[in-house]
Write a structure and sequence with these properties.
With about 80 residues, the chain is mainly alpha-helical. The protein is built from four helices and no strands. It has one domain (about 15-80). Helix 1 (about 15-20) crosses helix 3. The longest helix has 28 residues, at about 45-70.
Length: about 80
Amino acid sequence: MNEMEQKSDTGTLPESEVTLAERATDIRNAAELIRRAVSGIQSGRAEQLRTIAGQLDQQFDELHTIGIRLYAPELLGAER
């Protein structure tokens, strides 16, 4: 079984998903850094980088939810 197939101690999620959820803040920070780097620049590449930052935001949101589900599931009821 490789890392992608291994199950974590926290349930049925692959261990790699748990690890990424624990590093979600780094992903959010990367998106913010990209936005700062391209701030005020109008070009095709800058737009591509903004799109990547948006995709990272979506990944952060999903990983943050996984983290809450793993470590503080009682908060999910409060968020809804």
